[in-house]
Amino acid sequence: MEILVCLKQVPDDSVEIRLKPGTEEVNLDGVANVVNAFDTYALEMAARLKEAVGGSVTAVTVGPEGAKDAVKTCLAVGANQGYLISDPAFEGADTLGRSKILAAAIKRLETEAGKPFDLIFCGREATDRATGQLGPQLAETLGVGVITDLVDIEQTAGGICAKQETEEGYRRVEAATPCVVTVNKPAYDPRYPTIKNKMAARKMPIPVLSAAELGQVDPGQPGVHVVKVYEPAKRQAGVKIKEETCADSAIKAVGMMAEAKLL
Amino acid sequence: MSQYEKVTPELIEALKAAVPGRVSVDGDINEDFSHDEMPIYGKAMPEVVVEAVTTEEVAAVMKLCNEHRVPVTPRGAGTGLAGGAVAIHGGVVLSTTKMNKILGYDTENMVVRVQAGVLLNDLAEDAAKQGLLYPPDPGEKFATLGGNVSTNAGGMRAVKYGATRDYVRAMTVVLPTGEIVHLGASVSKTSSGYSLLNLMIGSEGTLGIITELTLKLIPAPKEVISLVVLYENLEDCIATVPKLMRANLHPQALEFMEREIVRLSESYLGKSTFPQTFEGTDINAYLLITFDGDNEDQLNEIIEQASEVVLEAGALDVLVADTPQLKKDAWAARSTFLEAIEANTKLLDESDVVVPVNEIANYVKFINTIAAEYDFEVKSFGHAGDGNLHIYNCSNDMEVKEFERQVADFMKRAYAKATELGGLISGEHGIGHGKLEYLAQMVGPVNMRLMEGVKQVFDPNLILNPGKVCYKL
Known about the structure:
heterodimer; A: alpha/beta; Rossmann fold; 2 domains; 9-stranded mixed beta sheet; globular; B: alpha+beta; Uridine Diphospho-n-acetylenolpyruvylglucosamine Reductase, domain 2; Uridine Diphospho-n-acetylenolpyruvylglucosamine Reductase, domain 3; Alpha-Beta Plaits; 4 domains; 7-stranded antiparallel beta sheet; 5-stranded antiparallel beta sheet; 14 helices; 20 strands; 22% strand
């Protein structure tokens, strides 16, 4: 099975990120860049599928030169090859623009390899902007189906069977390939790279694809305009109710709600 | 006990006048004040808890209690493991947790001034925001810095950076008499008389109450990377340590972990982090190693060399935690050992012996051999890089008396062996009152007499933290 994993380099979301005081500029000083967590889940799921059924995994990202590090990280944990799509013309592209860039890159890589991708994996959303739009937009641009929020996947005779997480529980969805899938947090964690794979990944070349090499793709003008950037309002600290018994606590809670005219 | 007076209503009034609004008595005292994290050494409720916010308040309390011959037990966050902050003779507990202000950085001299009740975690986070590192890194991140200094806490990074002692430049101390003294200075060397500063460090609140500290910081390393090394057996795992230390690679942290405790911790966290098998072979031991450096290329070379050393020495494979998430997961599993043990154990005792690095394998082998003779389980882990082992005795079904009897026998043998191998009975947890007799056995009567003499000079009425470290009443 030929698999492509789309990934995005984002600021490390495990640290607290604030705006620069008095501005609408996000303060990313000293914040490391990492691979979007959902993309790491997508890569792990893709790698497991490849190991189960054979094939290869290709990792691609759209970004500046520094995003090569993100691709390199993936080469140590299951990706067989990786590409950076980078061009000054792509700066500022929104998800729709990126989906067009990725679609053009996919066509280019398929032509080069002489075979199509069976599956295209994306994370369900990126942890920086969390729009969750890239996967569906990419599927639409490519003219293939999309299944969102996967937590498991297996190959079937005609394509794939996916376990999709919904608000109510899980749904089994079958689809023909090629198709796009977006991945939520599965029951397992991304693997650690072994030292051997990490050192091998360091030495692997990461080709850069520019706009010219993608056949003059035009990401178009951003369809999304940022009106305002602001920090979420600070919520007031809650009240801790800690009575002798659960019943007493419940009575006190109900009393407080009644007093606040919430009941 | 008889040499002390009980707390009187008059004393309570005087304390309330000295520390308005922060004096609790009898029924108002939270049960937490009766023990630390090792309640097996006995619980004791203080008669009064005073939460001071300034050095002057501490001085006023000490003066009053010294005059009234009422014992005072200083207490930080109560996370100790030897009973040091428990008021075994009653009296007043003086809590420093409200003295929690970071007073300021001097980035030219690379020091920070803090009140003693600042939590280690709070200083670590605050220093990191300024690109600085406070290297001591004990497992318990919510201990106070005053408590850390009082036990000379060590922690994971001690193998490269040393223990708390190496980062204390100066301190303000209230003596048992109520006098306020300043020890040390913001300088990097001293040859200025007896080092009272160093005497205070590790004295477990028996000589004075630390109220302010000037601590040394270093520039935070730019890059940090951890390795998880997989072994089929513990012997191979521990035997690697001296080889790794000889390779001159300067690991920041070097921890060994046995399979059972890793599984316990993962189950406690609800997250499986470390692999259990490697190409069909069961993994029974792990080394968790961290390196730091100024750039990625330099670090990559170091981890490659380190991997060669461990693979040559019999490791099955080496995993690299090179992203913030992987590092966080790997160290979360290690940092949760004690919590995981506490959550799964009714009766618990522990020891934290330190032996020369080349004797760790012999010592662990000895412990695992004698462990089979007792009814409790023995779980051990530790700072392999500096020979400091944490050995836990755990039981869920033994009678308390029988547990204590068997543990006492185990400890006696464990400490004797540590001494025989050239080690000491505590690397970083301290003596408190839980380990006092073992200390006396280990260091002998002359050393104990010297310690008691020092105590007398600082505390003529023996009112500060009585019954701890070097003398019983």
